[in-house]
Design a protein that fits this description.
By secondary structure, the protein is mainly alpha-helical. The chain is built from six helices and two strands. The chain has one domain (3-128): Tetracycline Repressor, domain 2, CATH 1.10.357.10. The chain has helices spanning 3-21, 29-36, 40-46, 50-73, 81-92, 102-108; strands spanning 118-121, 125-128. InterPro entries: Homeodomain-like_sf, HTH-type_TetR-like_transc_reg, HTH_TetR.
Length: 132
Amino acid sequence: MTQPVSRRVAILDAARAMLAERGVAEISLRELADRIGLAKSNVLRYYDSREAIFLEVLDQEWIVWLDALEAAVADVPTGDAEGVARALAATLHGRSSGAPRRRTLRTCADAPAGFSRRWRCRGGGSRSGPLP
């Protein structure tokens, strides 16, 4: 793994760990940089902003969750709304940091205008649009 890739992974891992402790609004870029032993300016070499870091974490979390949801609903018969609801609940149950978190969504929805919001969906390629 190259240094830029390992640094990006370290930044995202630290951000994910900090999100498990508190909400995104309570985490500063300086605290994040301190946690991984980099200067704030070095973190900004890898990501454009604090928001970009947390949106990348959120994007990864959504991909993992959507894959789990897709697998869970694969065996649900067509038209079985209760089965879909059970599958949805099962994929969210017990996911402390892996589930899309409401407080993260609310804060990231306030990202600067023009900030790229990416959502990848299986079978649908890449889809751009506002956060849900």
